[in-house]
């Protein structure tokens, strides 16, 4: 199933269930040969920092850090909202593998062909 798919994630430890399920869905899309993107915004940008997700474990799911690592290994991309990142004064040198800081225009470009998107 070629094509693209976007998962927009606005939560991190403020809602571990949403953060976990977002990466479960992203992994499913990547496994379906979709060009898959997770866009982290608002509190979700905190997941871009190495070690932040290490203690997030929702019952019935793989640990969040493992889901994130598997997503990147499968070719998934993690885009991090630049203004949200800067507002929280996070460290660019501590980005997780596969993460890139981008502006909103980059997301609009990715979605401009009608690519499906889901938000958590």
Q: How would you state the average pLDDT, rounded?
A: 97
CATH superfamily: DsrEFH-like
Unreliable residue stretches: none
The major pleated sheet works out as: 5 strands, parallel
Examine the coordinates and then state which fold CATH places here, giving the name of the CATH topology.
Answer: Hypothetical Protein Ychn, Chain: A
Structural class: alpha/beta
- Corresponding CATH architecture: 3-Layer(aba) Sandwich
**Could you give the order of strands across the largest sheet?**
4-3-2-1-5
Provide a descriptive summary of the structure in words:
- With 120 residues, this protein is α/β, with parallel strands linked by helices.
- The protein has one domain (4-119): DsrEFH-like (Hypothetical Protein Ychn, Chain: A).
- It has helices at 16-31, 64-73, 82-87, 104-111; strands at 4-9, 35-40, 77-81, 99-102, 117-119.
- A five-stranded parallel beta sheet has the order 4-3-2-1-5.
- α1 (16-31) packs parallel to α2 (64-73).
- The model has no long low-confidence stretch (mean pLDDT 97).
Entry keywords:
alpha/beta; Hypothetical Protein Ychn, Chain: A; five-stranded parallel sheet; 120 residues; 5 strands; 33% helix; single chain; 4 helices
In short:
The protein is of the alpha/beta class and 120 residues long.
Blueprint of the fold:
Blueprint lengths: L3 E6 L6 H16 L3 E6 L23 H10 L3 E5 H6 L11 E4 L1 H8 L5 E3 L1
Parallel strand pairs: 1-2, 1-5, 2-3, 3-4
Helix pairs in contact: 1-2
């Amino acid at each position: 199933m070629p094509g693209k798919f976007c998962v927009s994630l606005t939560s991190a430890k403020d809602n571990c269930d949403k953060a976990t399920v977002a990466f479960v869905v992203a992994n499913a899309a990547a496994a379906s040969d979709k060009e898959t993107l997770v866009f982290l915004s608002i509190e979700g940008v905190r997941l871009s920092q190495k070690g932040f997700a290490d203690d997030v474990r929702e019952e019935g799911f793989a640990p969040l850090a493992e889901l994130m690592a598997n997503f990147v290994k499968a070719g998934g991309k993690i885009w991090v909202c630049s203004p949200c990142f800067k507002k929280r004064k996070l460290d660019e040198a501590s980005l997780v593998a596969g993460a890139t800081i981008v502006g909103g225009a980059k997301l609009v470009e990715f979605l401009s062909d009608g690519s499906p998107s889901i938000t958590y």
